[in-house]
From TrEMBL:
<feature type="transmembrane region" description="Helical">
    <location>
        <begin position="238"/>
        <end position="259"/>
    </location>
</feature>
<feature type="transmembrane region" description="Helical">
    <location>
        <begin position="421"/>
        <end position="442"/>
    </location>
</feature>
<comment type="similarity">
    <text>Belongs to the SLC35F solute transporter family.</text>
</comment>
<feature type="transmembrane region" description="Helical">
    <location>
        <begin position="67"/>
        <end position="84"/>
    </location>
</feature>
<protein>
    <recommendedName>
        <fullName>Solute carrier family 35 member F5</fullName>
    </recommendedName>
</protein>
<dbReference type="InterPro" id="IPR037185">
    <property type="entry name" value="EmrE-like"/>
</dbReference>
<dbReference type="InterPro" id="IPR000620">
    <property type="entry name" value="EamA_dom"/>
</dbReference>
<feature type="transmembrane region" description="Helical">
    <location>
        <begin position="213"/>
        <end position="232"/>
    </location>
</feature>
<feature type="transmembrane region" description="Helical">
    <location>
        <begin position="301"/>
        <end position="317"/>
    </location>
</feature>
<keyword id="KW-0472">Membrane</keyword>
<feature type="transmembrane region" description="Helical">
    <location>
        <begin position="368"/>
        <end position="388"/>
    </location>
</feature>
<feature type="transmembrane region" description="Helical">
    <location>
        <begin position="395"/>
        <end position="415"/>
    </location>
</feature>
<feature type="transmembrane region" description="Helical">
    <location>
        <begin position="271"/>
        <end position="289"/>
    </location>
</feature>
<keyword id="KW-0812">Transmembrane</keyword>
<feature type="transmembrane region" description="Helical">
    <location>
        <begin position="329"/>
        <end position="348"/>
    </location>
</feature>
<feature type="transmembrane region" description="Helical">
    <location>
        <begin position="30"/>
        <end position="47"/>
    </location>
</feature>
<feature type="domain" description="EamA">
    <location>
        <begin position="298"/>
        <end position="440"/>
    </location>
</feature>
Length: 481
């Protein structure tokens, strides 16, 4: 269908087409989010194995230093201030106590009207022309003496009949119309580029709000990462991964208390999926050949604490921000790295003098390179992708994807280290993969709760089923609430 035919469609059909486009876009974003989360799982497997190698094989058992190094590495994103114009404009906006972005955007949009709005542009120009004669639009006249070169241009012949004045009158637009003066001298491409920057800024969180958000969440992120790193130092990666996967249960509880979207609402099917996933992860890690006798380990407590903080961090930031388009994620994590470096360096002295962790720099170049590689890929890239996948899907699905790290890490051992696992291992992998797919579908089809439907059918004889009109009324009331 051509754009001309589309313009002749009735309003109802146009709305239906827009609704279909919106649903198609939402579906594409959801599929992209699932793919992103799977990529993050593979990155985390490599990062966990690399951390385990640094702590145990390379004999550099420093969880706090590793966490601090990874956090500081986030500040690399702030180099973007040298290249990203949106960030540069936000600095100017903050330094000048807030430029009139919306006013400027309105003026730029008026100037950059396309051919379809040519009559509006001409109307605006005519209104502007007529307004120049009104007081206050043009400043009072000023008189300046002309230079000798300018006087010579008028001709210095003795036979001229007309003698020009050596003083010229200067008039200019008022300061409140400075934007129009600047835009009138810019090319069309420059105006369109400026319009894109202003539109992006208008949809993003302001620089000050992004900085405040990073200050609030840097503590949660650092302690959550520290818990996971300490777990890797005291247990195997498999045990650390199984306990980190419990963050799905905590996320379900927190998201039910503080829902950010309808996809985060509690239902029995999601609860059952999380429990099944956790059971599968437990079976997989229980059959780990490297696992020693079952003992209560301090590393287990570190992992559980990190899981709670991860769930809190993820639910609160999604509730605080809302849509992913509002948060400039590289800018946010850049300030997380900056404030992490400023706030947590005293921890080295506390841990050093309490003999919890002696402060020692990496002994050789190899350890430095491993730390940089782990921070660049396992933290810098993976955190951005994970948070992006969370925004594209839901906080529950993003956290539940952590459960896939355990079977993937064991699959890595099968392929690379030629480790043999029992049949219980494969029995544990199945519920993890199934629950991941089920939660993906439950998140996509909001309000679908097959477990609750089964209970309703079983115990339906004790309660009368509401008629369609009553059901529609209940749905409307729920939407209003």
């Amino acid at each position: 269908m051509s754009s001309r035919d589309h313009g002749k469609l009735p309003l109802k059909e146009k709305n239906l087409l827009e609704l279909k486009k919106c649903r198609r876009k939402k579906k594409q974003e959801f599929i992209l989010g699932v793919i992103v989360l799977l990529v993050v799982d593979f990155i985390w497997v490599g990062s966990a194995e690399l951390s385990d190698y640094i702590f145990k094989e390379n004999k550099y058992d420093k969880p706090y230093f590793t966490t601090y190094f990874k956090t500081v590495f986030f500040s690399v994103y702030l180099i973007g201030f040298c290249f990203v114009r949106n960030w540069q404009y936000q600095i100017k906006q903050s330094c000048t106590r807030g430029l009139p972005t919306k006013k400027m955007l309105k003026e730029v949009s008026r100037v950059s009207q396309g051919p379809q709005n040519e009559h509006l542009r001409q109307q605006a120009i005519s209104c502007e022309t007529s307004a120049t004669s009104t007081p206050g639009y043009i400043t009072p006249p000023k008189f300046e003496n002309m230079t000798d070169d300018e006087i010579s241009l008028n001709g210095d012949s003795q036979n001229k009949k007309v003698k020009f004045n050596d003083v010229r009158e200067v008039r200019s637009l008022a300061k409140r119309h400075a934007e129009a003066q600047i835009l009138s001298r810019m090319s069309h491409n420059s105006v369109e580029e400026l319009r894109g920057i202003l539109l992006s800024l208008d949809q993003k969180l302001p620089l000050k709000e992004t900085i405040k958000l990073s200050v609030y969440f840097v503590v949660l992120w650092v302690f959550a990462t520290l818990g996971y790193q300490a777990a890797l130092a005291n247990t195997t990666p498999s045990v650390a991964n199984i306990l980190s996967a419990t963050s799905g249960i905590f996320t379900l509880c927190f998201a039910a208390c503080f829902p950010s979207t309808s996809a985060d609402r509690f239902n029995f099917s999601k609860l059952l999926s999380v429990l099944v996933s956790f059971g599968g992860v437990f079976i997989v890690c229980w059959t780990d050949p490297a696992k020693k006798d079952s003992t209560v380990n301090i590393g287990d407590l570190y992992a559980i604490g990190g899981a709670i903080l991860y769930a809190t961090y993820l639910v609160l930031i999604r509730r605080k921000v809302g849509e992913d388009r509002k948060l400039d994620m590289p800018l946010f994590f850049g300030f997380v790295g900056l404030f992490g470096a400023l706030f947590f360096w005293p921890g080295f002295f506390i841990l050093h003098y309490t003999n919890v962790e002696r402060f020692e720099l990496p002994p050789d170049l190899k350890t430095w390179l491993l730390l940089i590689l782990n921070a660049a890929i396992g933290t810098l890239l993976s955190e951005i992708l994970w948070l992006w996948g969370c925004f594209l899907t839901s906080s529950l699905l993003a956290t539940l994807s952590l459960g896939l790290v355990a079977p993937l890490s064991m699959a890595f051992d099968i392929i690379v280290h030629k480790v043999q696992f029992s049949y219980l291992f494969f029995l544990g992998v199945a519920p993890i993969l199934i629950s991941f797919v089920v939660v993906s579908l439950l998140t996509h089809y909001e309000g679908y709760d097959p477990v609750m439907n089964c209970f309703s059918k079983i115990f339906g004889n004790t309660k009368q089923e509401p008629n369609p009109d009553e059901r529609e009324s209940l749905l409307e009331n729920d939407a209003v609430a």
